[in-house]
Write a structure and sequence with these properties.
Dipeptide-binding Protein, domain 3; D-Maltodextrin-Binding Protein, domain 2; 509 residues; 31% helix
Amino acid sequence: MKSLLIAFLIVAALAGDATAQPATRPDGEMRWALYVTLTPAWFDPGEVTGGFLTPFWVLYALHDALVKPMPGNLMAPSLAESWTVSADQRVYDFKLREGLKFHNGDPFTADDVKFSFLRSKVGKVLKDRVREVEVVSPSRVRFHLQEPFPDFMAFYGTLATGAGWIVPKKYVERVGDDGFKKQPVGLGPYKFVSHTPGIELVMEAFEGHWRKVPSVKRLVFKTVPDPTTRAAMLKNGEVDVAYMLDAPAAMELKRDPSLRLGFSGAIGVHYLDFFDQWDPKSPWHDRRVRLAANHAIDRRGLSESETLGASRPTGSMAPRKFDFTLPLEPYAYDPPRAKKLLAEAGYPNGFDGGDFYPYPPYWSAGETIVGYLGAVGIKMKVRTMERAAFQTAWAGKKLHGICMCTMANFGNAATRLVDAVTSEGAYARGADADIDALFKQQARETDRKKREARLHQIQQLVYDRVRFGPLYEFIWASGIGPRVAEPGLMLIDPYPWSAPLEDVRLKGK
């Protein structure tokens, strides 16, 4: 019996080695067409403060985290083998994987974990809640909180921020923050090769990656803002995956038997933000006007025209898969009621609603929404901006009118709502005192049931007061070329792009 057990363990160990170290080395090149320009700030986890998911395009390739969403587990042990929480919920103790090396050969230790957290720009949302980061040993690090914080792991162990993603302390200290962005070094499955701004990012497989050796040797991320061009590049073989196609391009590719469509997303909720609702002189200050705008929009029709019907209309600001999300029905498409509400508010002939900003690159959806609003008498003008400029203006609270905004930050309903709903939110133009008080209460509540009840109450109040106009959980089509065996879409659910990148495969690999 003993010999049989030993034999079983040997076979299991050999099988594990075979999984971690494939017989063939990485080979081939796989190319993606991205829809926005990559910024060097996305190469540095310390710059990822929360609210946006696009930096993880790069982070999942070049870097790694103590804990992160992975297939089958949205809070999977990665650089940390395990962690424990003290009884008073004030101490989080992480046991790190040993023997790992960064791309440049520097050893990974607890010093890198502490350094990465302290240089992160997460600020109030996370860093200010940590009293001390204690390096217990090279393979153990301990976070001491100021007080119990139920969302510590939501912010540190998911994609809500980049604070849990690790950079090499010695290297960053040697080259500086600017030097790091020019030549990033990490623990991810791919190493940085080159970046041509506005053109492409090139990476090569890191065969020392702890989880598995990547299948594909070389990854190329190309910047291609125009969806028609992305589709054309896929058809002629210039790229293997074309992200986020518009409906006409997706329909055309669907007719090509050599290509296929992959639908992914559901992490981002597209919604209307009425920037001027806090100004008593603005028409948008009147709840009836905001409700009228919501009833003017055919969300199902918008989903059909923009995403082949894949996007799911919703009345909630957070995805239905998130913890603590209150499922809410979308505001009904009812133009006659919209006109009646406008008349009751003193605008029987409609009014000039000002500027309408579609979140880049969703300009087509913006045009459609402005058409719906115009049909009930709300006249607006579409204003388009490049994404970086838009985000700067949005965060700087310089825009007026309405934006079709989107949030795709990870975590749970609380981490999704905080930036839009609370007085301290990064994108909030105003707040309700009672909602602020409820939000502070839930943030300290360690009883899960009580916390859920408060978060549901907050979401119902926001909905009843028509603070926003949730449209749909955004799900889009991407094109996949004939060379691709595994594009990596939705291996992590919900995560909208290819990941983990060590799992993508070309045919014959």
